[in-house]
Write the structure tokens for this entry.
Amino acid sequence: MTELTFAILKYGFLALLWVFVWLAVRSLRKDIETFSPKPSHSRRRRERAARRALPQTAVPTTGVRGDPSATAGRSAGPEGPTLLVVIDGPLAGSSVPLGDQPITLGRSASNMMVLDDEFVSSHHARVYRDPASGRWAIEDLGSTNGTVVNGQRITTPTLLPAEVPVRIGATTFELR
């Protein structure tokens, strides 16, 4: 084997090693972004654009938990929300129709919506129609990492108006 052949093999192997390291780091970065409980860059960009597009007289989206005035100016139809829509996370774009049965969310296969995420408990939360008010509510089922409604972690069953974001692990959904 000549010295030139040996040098070419040596530098070729070194280049392949760096390509492997770059691919491994890129893969880890994507996994961390996917499973991170904070909102993605694209979701934050969409939210900023939506806030800029709102007229100055619009009602802010923050409010007291369970307060229907928190979503004043927004409508979900005359009869209320009919879908639970995932807006961010691994299941983005999927939806579940709201019916008479409660919707359970968690990592276990026995849930109506299975969230394959290490930050989600096996039986994390449930969305159900509140018998007293007839409106939709969400309840955290004693999860480790909690359920966040409109930026606030909940500890008690909370009324869930339409278009209020709910975050469980890396998944964000809302009622529409």
User: Anything to note?
Assistant: Helices lie at 3-35, 41-53.
